[in-house]
Amino acid sequence: MSCATASRDGTERRQPSPVRRLPRRAGRGGGILLTFLGLEPLEDAVYRLLVDRPDSEPATLAGESAGCAEDVARALDVLVERGLASARPGGDAVIHYRAASPVLALGPLLESRRASLRRVESLVTTLSERHRSAQAHGSGAPVEVLSGAAAIRRRLLLIQDQATVEVCT
Predict the structure, then answer these.
(1) Does residue 3 surpass a pLDDT of 70?
(2) Could you report the per-residue pLDDT of 44-95, keeping only the tens digit for each?
(3) Measured between alpha carbons, how far is 145 from 142 in angstroms, rounded to an integer?
(4) At what angle are helices 149-162 and 102-139 packed, to 10 degrees?
(5) Looking at residue 67, what is its pLDDT?
(6) How many other CB atoms are there within 10 angstroms of residue 29's CB atom?
(7) How far is the CA of 108 from the CAs of 26, 36, 112, 114, in angstroms?
(8) pLDDT exceeds cutoff 50 at 122
(9) For residue 87, is it left (φ>0), alpha (ψ between -120 and 50) or beta?
(10) What is the rounded CA–CA span in Å between residue 21 and residue 153?
(11) CA proximity to 37, closest of 124, 118, 114
(12) Measured between alpha carbons, how far is 63 from 53 in angstroms, rounded to an integer?
C-alpha cells in the first residue's frame, strides 16, 4: 500500500504508507488491543477515532491518524464490510462514517476468540494427559507423577470409577 504525494515539480510520487503506525492518540484505551480480534493496526486506530467522532469523513480521520487518506478510506471500507462501521452520504457529497456500537460489533469477534481459546485450552489439557501417560508407560516406572489440582482430581475420579473392590482398614 502506498500514498500519493506531490513533489516540488508537481509530479505525483507514491510512498509506502505508514499502515503499521498508530494514531497520535492511540494510547487511550489500550493501544492496539483490537488487533487481537483480527483487525489490522490502522483499522483498529480508525475504529477508535470513529467511536469518539461520529459522522467523520476519511480526510478528517486521516489528519488525526498516522495513515494517509487513501489508507484510511481502505480501512473504513473494511470496517463497513465487517459491520464495525456504517457509511452514509453527507450533504456535501462526501461519505460520512459512524462506528457501530462496540458491544454489538466487537462482541461476536470477542466471543469467537474466547471459543478458540477454550478449544486451545482443551487441546493443551488433552496433550498434557497424553504426554503424562506416554511418560509413565515409556519409563516403566511404577510411580505416576501428577501436577496440579485438576490432574489429581481427574486421576482420583478415574481410579474411583475403575475400582471394583473396596478395601477397609
Answers:
(1) no
(2) 999 999 999 888 888 888 888 767 888 899 999 999 999 999 999 877 778 9
(3) 10
(4) 60
(5) 74
(6) 11
(7) 23, 13, 6, 10
(8) yes
(9) beta
(10) 48
(11) 114
(12) 13
